[in-house]
Amino acid sequence: MQLKRLLPLAAAAVLLPSLGLAQEAEEAVDALEAITALNTEMVFIMNSLLFLIGGFLVFFMAAGFCMLETGLVRSKNAAMQATKNVALFSLAGIAYFVVGFNLMYPLGDWVIEGWLGGISPTVLEPVGVGLDEVDDIEYASIGSDFIFQLMFCAATASIVSGAVAERVKLFPFLIFVVVLTGIIYPIQASWSWGEGFLDELGFLDFAGSSIVHGAGASAALAGALIVGSRYGKYSKDGKVNVMPGSNLPLATLGMFILWFGWFGFNGGSQLAMGTIADVADVSRIFANTNLAASGGAVAALIMSTILYKKPDLTMVLNGALAGLVSITAEPLTPGLGMATLIGAIGGIIVVLTIPLLDKMKIDDVVGAIPVHGFAGIWGTLAVVLTNPDATLSAQLIGIVLIFGFMFAASLVVWLILKAVMGVRVSDEDQVTGLDKCDLGMEAYPEFSNT
Amino acid sequence: MQLKRLLPLAAAAVLLPSLGLAQEAEEAVDALEAITALNTEMVFIMNSLLFLIGGFLVFFMAAGFCMLETGLVRSKNAAMQATKNVALFSLAGIAYFVVGFNLMYPLGDWVIEGWLGGISPTVLEPVGVGLDEVDDIEYASIGSDFIFQLMFCAATASIVSGAVAERVKLFPFLIFVVVLTGIIYPIQASWSWGEGFLDELGFLDFAGSSIVHGAGASAALAGALIVGSRYGKYSKDGKVNVMPGSNLPLATLGMFILWFGWFGFNGGSQLAMGTIADVADVSRIFANTNLAASGGAVAALIMSTILYKKPDLTMVLNGALAGLVSITAEPLTPGLGMATLIGAIGGIIVVLTIPLLDKMKIDDVVGAIPVHGFAGIWGTLAVVLTNPDATLSAQLIGIVLIFGFMFAASLVVWLILKAVMGVRVSDEDQVTGLDKCDLGMEAYPEFSNT
Amino acid sequence: MQLKRLLPLAAAAVLLPSLGLAQEAEEAVDALEAITALNTEMVFIMNSLLFLIGGFLVFFMAAGFCMLETGLVRSKNAAMQATKNVALFSLAGIAYFVVGFNLMYPLGDWVIEGWLGGISPTVLEPVGVGLDEVDDIEYASIGSDFIFQLMFCAATASIVSGAVAERVKLFPFLIFVVVLTGIIYPIQASWSWGEGFLDELGFLDFAGSSIVHGAGASAALAGALIVGSRYGKYSKDGKVNVMPGSNLPLATLGMFILWFGWFGFNGGSQLAMGTIADVADVSRIFANTNLAASGGAVAALIMSTILYKKPDLTMVLNGALAGLVSITAEPLTPGLGMATLIGAIGGIIVVLTIPLLDKMKIDDVVGAIPVHGFAGIWGTLAVVLTNPDATLSAQLIGIVLIFGFMFAASLVVWLILKAVMGVRVSDEDQVTGLDKCDLGMEAYPEFSNT
Question: Which of B24, B42, B124 minimises the CB distance to A287?
């Protein structure tokens, strides 16, 4: 509600004393407050609800990543991939609570202004918080904000786990996850979303094509380089050995779950749902998000058919995801046609760049770097196509700094882990499979023929 | 809120001038508007939110159909079935945006009044739309409506893909999907939901037992007839060869996802949630929808045990789905007992008619025609049992016209596709499997013994 | 909104007559009512919406249980496990409608005050209910409450099916489910949530660590004892034979779905979302629930690595679930750190007690008794750590009575079923597998090597 529409009630409060009605004037003020409070409450409730809905939708993306990755690894590593995904999400939650959230949202309480946020664990509003005690009555409850943002943080770790699958050691990987989700990602994200220096610079990334997806892909690239490729992936004669995923229906389910969760990822990033304008914007975002995924999937279907004569299911899955990543930086301002196009270009990028990584002998098991990194860059640049507030220079600076910092910081952590405890499963154990060697169990004990 | 309760404020606006308070009178009018606006905004927000929640729930049904179908085909065709499902959903979104939505909801802008809607792509409200610029302030944002209706449109294509699985060619099928979701379904649906001639006639189909499910089943029947049965399904001696689904747990998951999404499918079709009456109605619909599914599953469990001595999991799954389809035409007016009964009869219909199709040598891989078609007819007729506004004649006319049009139009498209490019995979390739032949990959490369 | 803030409007109603404006005074009363009504409506709508969202989230837990259990049984019993899960959920809905709901919520209409609720089927509010006809305008629509509570009831049956998997006969099991969900659980739950004697005693169990999870585990324990262990599980020489789950990725998916649904399970149990305090509380609950699951998973990962040298995926899955069960009795009052700790202790309990059951030769296929029973007891006791209203004595009395009654009543039903029709599949059929013997189909006809 436009609160200025309540001015007449305020006028009445002024008028009544001149009629000799002092008490009534006071009461008119209270009436004014009552209507305003009702409005304020509803906005707060709707905003918080948006975060809660967004929270559970984006939570489910953890399951989506897990199914996608578990379906795309060989069956001898599938239980380990599932273990990593459950553990990384669990650790991300704890790390984000202990230090990440306040590092990301310093709310003025910076250690280094605009660059390094505050260091303290998350504290929520008290039980049964009153109208006057709420941390930010114009916004939403801290708990709803925390749960929503936590899911974004965890997504960066999920992206990494796919790229370094089938050969990274479990515990070093999990230590990396803790540092990534507790420190590296929150610091980087604070630059834009915590009102840090990138925000001041005018860098725009609505729901995180770069801030989340590019960040995850950068950390994944560092990991893939340090951990090295899977045993047998690249022959000495330069041949690339295909290692097909063991359960494509499961991977397809994972993609659908991610698409499902992305409505919360992008829609929730409107951050408000208590006015007509906000709910209509969330609706726009839903529609654009869906069409970008459509565009990405269809483009990947066509491109893979043209390039390889036959359509490729994993390319279609990654195409849809690339479409989603591409629209994430600006899911609001494009029209439906432009959203479809932005997604389609994302899909094409993925089909063209996945083989490229193999040529550079960078072993990215699920295609996470092209999907979240290359399409993320594209999406971040594409903001300038539809949002007049965006400048190419700010977008470029943001991309370079985000990808650069995430890659460099991750590289350092991976290198330390490699030096201290080793990060790579031995070739022999890779041949046997991580499930048997490191878990002592099999994902599908009755099925596998290998 | 009943707006007439605000009349006293209006009275004050009239009264004040007589007290010589002209300006105050004007301000009272504004105050009146402020409260009204708050109410209007909340209704708009809640209605839009219902569509958004319904939207992501019904979206997930695309995953449900995909898992159900992928689990019920043989493993050699599972990757292709997944590919078809991802591609069909993606194309449906684009086709519905480019032409479908405005064809379905002409809002008075008909090409042929009541029969053929407007032809133009969807345009959403502008970013940050104001109270006065909104397209229909009494209803909901266009974007939320679009995303909700798009999911229904895509469902019709998902239904078809199950029936013609394991032998239809990918690209002809996808072309059919584009025509179905862009043109055929929207035209048909406009007759009832776009305020076309069936609506004027008094035909009632709340969430689409006929308009969506029957429509999909009719298109599926046309496809199954033109594409023909799977190689080896029907022996020349009249024997029906069972081709069991390769992954029944996955099919079960698909059924559960569909049930989950159906809360949005039926609940969202209340189209409003901003008043006590509306939210209580949505609640009724949730409860009735759930019990109809229960009734369908239990009835199918009992019937299959009686008929075949042993319960049949795929019958139970299809029974639950048939229960859901049956209640879809009227999930609001029945009491809980009647809802259970309507669903149970749907479940029985499916158990009885699935073998019937086989006798007619119509090869419907997942039972889509009985589940969505026969139970859809039953559900559409059952409206007269609980809704006094329904007439048997209007329901019958609607069923005949919807099924007839959908079947005939689909048949023409399938015949053209058959003539131009062929729609059926060769028998040899069917023996090898569509995954290897047409995708060059396998769904489960390490598991399959066949 | 604090309604006392509307007092000035009431004052105006009193004031106006003294100005000789009788009619205007009456109208001021109506204006007062209008604003109050708007507020009342919004609270009713938001509360009902919370139940509806909670309802579909907790519904999906039925799919989660199904996938978890189907993934943890051997493939020869997987289709049967899926069948049981679909059928139990369907029957639970019908039983809860026919008698359970009113037995659980007598609303003063007790057969035996505080101990045995009313006996009648559920009747919802009429279609298009008005403000004045609503059953409880301060609360939510009956339908939304019914659908939410139904899902809790069904969860108890899902817990049982996991424990007695792979050897219980289908139809005796389903009869047990009907009695459990229609009668035993509702009576027990009425003691606390239906304002029965445990509620008066001060027993606190926010979302059902004992009332739902402990109840299910108690029924499961009775079942496991009467049905006996799986053929070959315990050798005569005391050796425990490991029978590994056939599809761990599917089990992992099941865990993720359960975690997803738990946001509704605990969040919805706030029972209200129409004020700032309530929505902030729901947010706290989301955050605490998530961190308890994190704590449980991480603790189980570490504990299983310490105890068995290698981490164990099924322990990690059960650890997350134990964390969720542990926080369920009080997800609101703990801070985030305490929530993590409560969940972690739940995870440790599960790792320590799962082998214990095997030592006692109690065959619990999926670990349901430790996860839902032992962690449930811990969670119920842990309420006293953070909620000053809880007393250890009331919690202990509640636990003893709930577990005791649920176990005893279930035992009686299982014993009757055993005497009348037998509850255990023959050893020969267990060797062949329940799928082939009792369903005549296979879950994975093309995969299994056994």
Answer: B124
Contacts of A82 in chain C (CB under 8 A): 248-249, 252, 313
Closest approach of chain A CAs to the CA of C135, in angstroms?
Answer: 24
Handedness of CA B102, B106, B109, B114 (dihedral sign): positive
Residue A172 — very low, low, confident or very high, per pLDDT cuts 50/70/90? very high
Amino acid at C110: W
Q: pLDDT for A238-261, tens place per residue?
A: 899 999 999 999 999 999 999 999
The shortest CB-CB distance from C11 to any of A24, A51, A53 is to: A24
The C-alpha angle C39, C42, C48, rounded to 5 degrees, equals 140
Domain count, chain A: 1
CATH number at residue C79: 1.10.3430.10
Q: Closest to C127 (Cβ–Cβ): which among B263, B316, B333?
A: B333
Residue C7 falls inside a structural domain:
no
> What does the pLDDT read at residue C131?
84
Domain that includes residue A279, residue range: 20-439
Best of A252, A259, A269, A448 to disrupt the B interface (most B CBs within 10 Å) is A252
Choose between A318 and A137: higher pLDDT: A318
Q: What is the pLDDT of residues B276-300, one digit of tens each?
A: 999 999 999 999 999 999 999 999 9
Angstroms from B240 CA to nearest CA on chain A = 28
Interface contact flag, B121 A249, Cβ < 8 Å: no
Q: Is B34 helix (H, G, I), strand (E, B) or coil?
A: helix
Closest CA to B8 of B32, B37, B34, B41: B32
CA distance A294 to chain B (A): 4
Nearest to C298 among A78, A90, A134 (CB): A90
CB contact under 8 A, B63 and A7: no
Compare C447 and B415 and report the one with higher pLDDT: B415
Average pLDDT, chain A: 93
Radius of gyration of chain A (CA): 24
Nearest alpha carbon to residue B351 among B381, B325, B320, B394: B320
* Eight-class DSSP state of C229: P
Q: What is the ipTM of this complex?
A: 0.94
Does C14 fall in a domain? no
Looking at per-residue pLDDT, the higher value among A117 and A325 belongs to A325
Asked whether the predicted pLDDT for residue B48 surpasses 70, the reply is yes
Minimal C-alpha gap between B79 and chain A (Å): 6
Average predicted confidence (pLDDT) for chain C: 93
**3-class state of residue A240 by DSSP:** strand
Three-state secondary-structure class, residue C219: helix
**Per-residue pLDDT averaged across A41-57, rounded?**
96
Residue B258 lies in a domain: yes
Of B252, B290, B293, the CB nearest to C147: B290
Q: Which residue of A has its CA nearest to C293?
A: A90
Q: Do A82 and C310 touch (CB under 8 A)?
A: no
The shortest C-alpha distance from A87 to chain B (Å) reads 24
Q: What is the count of residue pairs from A and C with beta carbons less than 8 Å apart?
A: 242
Against a cut of 0.90, is the pTM above it?
A: yes
Q: Could you tell me if A76 and A436 are in contact, meaning their C-beta atoms sit under 8 angstroms apart?
A: yes
Which of the other chains make 3 or more beta carbon contacts under 8 angstroms with chain C? Answer: A, B
pLDDT at position C293 is 98
Alpha-carbon separation of residue C234 from A41, B29, C76, C77 (angstroms): 60, 82, 19, 19
Higher-scoring residue by pLDDT: A237, C244 = C244
**CA distances (Å), B264 to each of A186, A342, A349, C259, in order?**
35, 29, 34, 21
3 state SS of C234 = strand
CA angle centred on A156, ends A151 and A161, rounded to 5°: 115
Query: Are A90 and C320 within 8 A, CB to CB?
Result: yes
Nearest Cα residue in chain A from B25: A8
In a domain, B320, yes or no: yes
